[in-house]
Design brief:
- This protein has 2 domains: 89 residues, 2-Layer Sandwich (Phosphorylase Kinase, domain 1); 201 residues, Transferase(Phosphotransferase) domain 1 (Transferase(Phosphotransferase), domain 1).
- By secondary structure, it is of the alpha+beta class.
- The strands form 5 sheets. Strands 1-5-6-4-3-2 form a 6-stranded mixed beta sheet, sandwiched between helices.
- The chain contains 10 helices and 14 strands.
- It comes from Spirodela intermedia.
- GO terms for molecular function: ATP binding; protein serine/threonine kinase activity.
Length: 364
């Protein structure tokens, strides 16, 4: 074959191949844009319709019983989101006390305007709390979508968080007695057992801690802040994700670099919460032992294993340093600490399920 003809054939082949690749790239880009431009499909309530410009990456399904409330109403109810109305903060936003026109007091969580994190928490909370009901889970009442803003409306729980009652005591907020602490822990256990065993698929909270446990007027516990929650597909025992949670409560497998979130990670965090409730100490603050700083969980587990678990008790429970709790409470405390020790086992498979934990606590 003549060299000229060979060169022409090679040039034509190269042009055809480049054209084909360019066409495939255009089709892929078009498909991606179509997938990314799906509009949030919100139910219309009270005459309000979703904003046409509120485009997001994925659709969200809502319980039709949830109210959609306008930004103007929420701004008026919170004093334009005044700093003195802030009652707490969650994973990605502040929580405000709001006085609604009908006389109700509610809590409004204004999520971070960050497009990714704000939407992710919004979706996680709506698709968990918006569709399930349990006496030990915070109840979501409604939502607001306004431009890039995402807000969630909850029942207002007047006693605040467990964290405040453990670590911010005062004349108006005295230390919780042992019976109240045990009741709160039972409530959290019941809520987690429901999420893990009764929800299909199971829901992993991933951020169990004292500040995410709210208390109603009767000191009944409500788990809140589901912004990091994930559902586990029925065909799997875990969900692969980025490491999430709060230092001091995270299980050792996260520190070892594993990112598979399982229900046993929640069990570990719950065990840390148990030690925190019993000791009155923050899990992410080290304990000074013989001049050395030791993590709370290591210190507490060592005392339980050595038969000296009562030494970790919050002095406020015993009327001061060195005082002993009543005999009946002492046995309860020992059983309580044994459960906490099992929950915080380094090996996730050795930790009990939350259903087992609830049964053990009910026997105390």
């Amino acid at each position: 074959m003549e060299p000229v003809i060979q060169a022409l054939l090679a040039a034509c082949g190269s042009f055809f191949l480049v054209s084909l690749l360019f066409g495939v790239a255009i089709l892929c880009l078009h498909a991606f844009r179509n997938r990314s431009s799906r509009v949030l499909n919100l139910p219309s309530r009270g005459g309000e319709r979703p904003r046409a410009g509120a485009s997001i990456n994925e659709s969200v399904t809502f319980d039709p019983s949830l109210d959609r409330i306008s930004m103007a109403r929420l701004a008026a109810a919170t004093g334009n989101f005044a700093a003195d109305r802030i009652v707490g903060d969650g994973s990605f936003g502040f929580v405000y006390r709001a006085e609604m026109p009908d006389g109700r007091t509610v809590a409004v969580k204004k999520l971070s305007p960050d497009a990714f994190h704000g939407f992710r928490e919004f979706r996680a909370e709506v698709e968990t709390l918006g569709r399930i009901r349990h006496q030990n889970l915070a109840r979501i009442l409604g939502y607001c979508v306004s431009g890039s803003d995402r807000l969630l409306i909850y029942e207002f729980l007047e006693q605040g968080s467990l964290d405040q009652w453990l670590h911010e005591t005062s004349s108006s907020r005295p230390p919780l007695p042992w019976a109240a602490r045990l009741g709160v822990i039972r409530g959290v256990a019941a809520g987690l057992a429901f999420l893990h065993a009764d929800c299909k698929p199971p829901i992993i909270h991933r951020d169990i801690k004292a500040s995410n446990v709210l208390l109603d007027g009767g000191f009944e516990a409500r788990i809140t802040d589901f912004g990091l929650a994930r559902r586990v597909d029925s065909s799997r025992s875990h969900v692969s994700t980025q490491v999430a949670g709060t230092m001091g409560y995270m299980p050792p497998e996260y520190r070892d670099g594993l990112t598979a979130a399982t229900v046993k990670a929640d069990v570990y965090s719950f065990g840390i919460l148990m030690f925190e409730v019993a000791s009155g100490r923050r899990p992410n603050w080290p304990v000074l032992v013989k001049g050395k700083e030791v993590a709370l969980v290591r210190w507490a587990r060592g005392l339980v294993e050595g038969g000296s678990g009562l030494e970790l008790l919050d002095p406020a429970l015993m009327g001061g340093e060195g005082a002993a709790p009543p005999a009946a409470e002492e046995e309860q405390v020992k059983g309580f600490l044994t459960v906490a020790h099992r929950c915080t086992s380094n090996a996730s498979r050795a930790r009990p399920s939350m259903g087992e934990v609830l049964n053990l606590l009910d026997q105390l």
